[in-house]
């Protein structure tokens, strides 16, 4: 255990919002008690006062900000979605320019049209200096293993831009969960949705076609690290005509990076490091949905040797984002 908050930290599942986008998040924020929702909106829109105060207290030196889910991927009007996503990226880069030592940003993309999403990613990275993109799951029921999205993945690979696959509500509630709304969202459904989406990419051969791709998964990798052995074993038994260049488990080292966002459990962290290796596990918080204090306290107290703690808290992120 290191003394409290002495380790520098970088976090990158850290959200902000602006009023026009908050409307799209009502599908899940409406279930929050009013006083919590009020505080959440304040924290999402605040980029300076409270946010920096909490970062300082936890020695979080740098955060990569992203628009809160689901954003423009939930907008039916494609032209409007593309315009607002671009405006979001302009707004974010202007705000970052006020304090570039502490803030970076992920692009927000509408994702309706893979070609346009690739163009906007390129603009966001090359012209605005953003660090990659955060994508909120499916886009009105379309998943990113669809062959049309290869153009987008090719662009992300060429730019060496990490892509954070972030949860959103399921397009349809499966029969399994129907009638149990407590399981639809962050409690469980988002894990199933986002983990399933990542596995669709893996088994569709996206990482074989784009071996340089860097996919980031939050929430301890949506618990996929714990499935590596079983994925290999059962894929061998039931390949369903799918062929891959490597074992499924190997893509967890070559292409997948996970963050600790929203899972402050030491035994889980130790297991995830065992599965992923020490280079592919990175600290994050998921501010303001999760507590900065809890996340920092957790990572400082986790039973890690100091070299590992430094890697997870900030060194891996510096390398991944070339900071
Ligand atoms: Zn999040």
Task: Please render the helix and strand layout as text.
Layout: E1 9-16, H1 19-22, H2 26-29, H3 34-45, H4 49-57, E2 60-67, H5 78-98, E3 103-105, H6 114-127, E4 133-136, H7 150-159, E5 163-166, H8 189-203, H9 206-209, E6 215-217, H10 218-222, H11 228-237, H12 251-254, E7 256-259, H13 266-276, E8 281-282, H14 292-301, H15 306-320
Parallel strand pairs: 1-2, 2-3, 4-5, 5-6, 6-7, 7-8
The structure holds zinc ion (ZN).
Please explain how this structure is put together:
- The radius of gyration is 19 Å and the shape is globular.
- It has helices spanning 19-22, 26-29, 34-45, 49-57, 78-98, 114-127, 150-159, 189-203, 206-209, 218-222, 228-237, 251-254, 266-276, 292-301, 306-320, and strands spanning 9-16, 60-67, 103-105, 133-136, 163-166, 215-217, 256-259, 281-282.
- The two termini are 26 Å apart.
- The strands form 2 sheets. Strands 4-5-6-7-8 form a 5-stranded parallel β-sheet. Strands 1-2-3 form a 3-stranded parallel β-sheet.
- The chain has one domain: TIM Barrel, CATH 3.20.20.
- It is of the alpha/beta class.
- The protein has 15 helices and 8 strands.
- The mean pLDDT is 96.
- Helices cover 46% and strands 11% of the residues.
- Helix 5 packs parallel to helix 6.
- Residues 13, 15, 166, 218, 286, 289 line the site of zinc ion (ZN).
């Amino acid at each position: 255990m290191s003394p409290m908050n002495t380790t520098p930290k970088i976090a990158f599942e850290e959200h902000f919002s602006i009023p026009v986008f908050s409307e799209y998040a009502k599908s899940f924020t409406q279930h929050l008690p009013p006083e919590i929702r009020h505080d959440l909106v304040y924290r999402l829109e605040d980029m300076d006062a409270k946010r920096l105060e909490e970062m300082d207290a936890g020695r979080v030196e740098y955060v990569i900000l992203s628009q809160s889910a689901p954003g423009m991927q939930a907008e039916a009007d494609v032209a409007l979605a593309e315009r607002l996503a671009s405006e979001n990226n302009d707004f974010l880069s202007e705000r970052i320019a006020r304090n570039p030592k502490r803030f970076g940003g992920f692009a927000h993309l509408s994702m309706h049209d893979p070609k346009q999403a690739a163009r906007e990613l390129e603009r966001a990275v090359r012209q605005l200096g953003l660090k990659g993109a955060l994508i909120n799951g499916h886009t009105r029921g379309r998943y990113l293993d669809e062959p049309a999205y290869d153009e987008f993945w090719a662009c992300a690979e060429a730019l060496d831009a990490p892509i954070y696959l972030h949860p959103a509500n399921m397009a349809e509630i499966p029969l399994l969960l129907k009638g149990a709304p407590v399981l639809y969202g962050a409690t469980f459904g988002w894990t199933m949705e986002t983990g399933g989406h990542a596995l669709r990419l893996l088994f569709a051969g996206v990482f074989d076609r784009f071996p340089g791709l860097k996919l980031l998964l939050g929430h301890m990798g949506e618990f996929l690290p714990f499935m590596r052995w079983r994925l290999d074993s059962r894929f061998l038994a039931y390949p369903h005509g799918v062929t891959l260049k490597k074992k499924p488990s190997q893509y967890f080292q070559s292409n997948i990076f996970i963050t600790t966002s929203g899972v402050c459990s030491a035994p889980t962290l130790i297991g995830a490091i065992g599965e992923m290796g020490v280079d592919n596990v990175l600290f994050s918080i998921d501010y303001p949905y999760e507590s900065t204090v809890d996340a920092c306290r957790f990572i400082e107290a986790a039973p890690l040797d100091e070299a590992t703690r430094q890697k997870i808290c900030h060194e891996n992120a510096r390398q991944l984002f070339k900071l």
